[in-house]
Write a structure and sequence with these properties.
By secondary structure, this protein is an alpha/beta fold. It is built from 9 helices and 7 strands; from the N terminus they run H-E-H-E-H-E-H-E-H-E-H-E-H-H-H-E. Helices cover 46% and strands 15% of the residues. It has a 7-stranded parallel sheet with strand order 3-2-1-4-5-6-7, with helices on both faces.
Amino acid sequence: MNASKHGYDFSGRVAVVTGAAGGIGLAASELFASCGAQVALLDRQTEVMQVAARLAGGVDRHLGCVLDVTDADAIAKAIGQVRARYGRIDVLVNNAGVALLEAADSLSEAAWDATMAINLKAPFLLAQAVAPVMRRQAYGRIVNLASQASVIGLERHAAYCASKAGLVGMSRVLALEWAKDGITVNAVSPTVVETALGKQAWAGAAGHAMRGKIPVGRFAQPEEIAALIAYLASEQAAMITGENVVIDGGYSVQ
């Protein structure tokens, strides 16, 4: 992949991506890097350090940070590290997420709290952390990974649906408040994506049944979601803010 192929040039831009060790986060990091961006890859998995080194190809260009995205102090430290190294932050992709699936009447309080902490609280804390940098630049792009579950109900997804609907609502408020500062904030809502998390949650009969409900007849690929993220993070999307862009193969139009 290269900048000319995708039509985006992120040269001189710095992108922060959470959940970057695999899945959508990795695909987005690879795309940003291929289009010239310097990428700070954040993940709780130590493998993120090797991923950052691999993307850099032996050059000290990208940054890997191991952290818990629900820890405000860890976020402040990581964002401070990015600022110190690059001097700016242009893009934040809040991708890290969790799906703890259980019937509503047996869902534990611990599972509810963990879902909200990772899927909703963490993106807010990260957005707060990067906003002052973006405001000083009068430029910023924040893309929050929501889900088709933000606009529809799914069995065994009470906490997940609530967290993703909340993320969309939060994105709209941040878009409204920060537009004057040159910052756009949007949400992306995919159908099931064939990541490790998606494959685990939709294995077997459940996955077969879900594919049958999607008009295009398949699940999404991480690279397809990354392409939409890149567009929303690009100069070309400057007039798009406060939106929840659904990418679900037609599922929610039925």
